[in-house]
């Protein structure tokens, strides 16, 4: 039995340690595919913390910085700029060549500062998913402030892309209010969980809410957080994840999430690993490359909540 949440610091939803248990459901993806592969591009460049915007500077970069948060780090800033100036276009070209649709976890302010990226998302049919207005923490944000930020993100993304986001994923983690706000603000799903290989439902104010899980394992962010240091290990990491889920998919079809960042996976060397892996996955029969919104809609239609 999962423990129930308490008041105070433990407030929020109860935890579920069981999920689908030892017998995952024998679901069917479209056309009988055995694995669903969801590529996500996190587009945050220009929305990170910045002293130019009146806040502290960003501290989550590729290398440790001796510069205090109250002083601009021009090298770290340029690393983020690389993602928006060059990296995102390299990733888009890879997706073009392999004809793979993706979901952009997009910050509203980042798109405002590079509207050509918003146009590219729209022209290529990729999905804009809300990633906050800024690339900031929401876990302890007051509810009214979180709602305001959420609405700012929706207005910005819709104006620039021509399509409002229906999914949501925030930096680090949601607040205890986030899912209630998403339901109230007209969203369809969220990806704020790393706890399964298939979509599932949770209860939000007594009603079922779809979750399309994400992954920090099969994610180029591991270069920054440690654990991955070579391009070959990154490619092999992705292949091994795919091979495991593809094999399991012969009996119980699964879902795989691959997380990329313009300033990480969009660099020249790492992008080669990304392209080689995606070509490898593309060479297999029975793979559904899908945007997360398509997965959520399919799950709601084919496997509605009981």
What do you see in this structure?
This protein is α/β, with parallel strands linked by helices and 306 residues long. The chain has a single domain, classed as TIM Barrel (Alpha-Beta Barrel). 37% of the residues lie in helices and 12% in strands. Strands 1, 2, 3, 6 and 7 form a five-stranded parallel sheet that branches. The chain has a two-stranded antiparallel sheet with strand order 4-5. Helix 1 links the parallel strand 1 and strand 2. Helix 1 runs parallel beside helix 8. The longest helix has 25 residues.
The gist of it:
This protein is an alpha/beta fold and 306 residues long. The chain has helices spanning 74-98, 108-112, 115-124, 143-161, 178-184, 222-225, 231-248, 268-282, 292-302; strands at residues 35-43, 103-106, 127-130, 200-204, 207-211, 254-261, 287-289.
Largest sheet: 5 strands, parallel
What radius of gyration results from the CA coordinates? 19 Å
For the record, what CATH class applies? Alpha Beta
CATH architecture, by name, is Alpha-Beta Barrel
User: What is the helix content?
Assistant: 25-40%
The CATH H-level superfamily is Glycoside hydrolase/deacetylase
Total number of beta strands:
7
Apparent shape: globular
User: Which structural category fits the helices and strands?
Assistant: alpha/beta
Strand content: 5-15%
Number of domains: 1
CATH fold-level topology: TIM Barrel
Distance, first to last CA: 20 Å
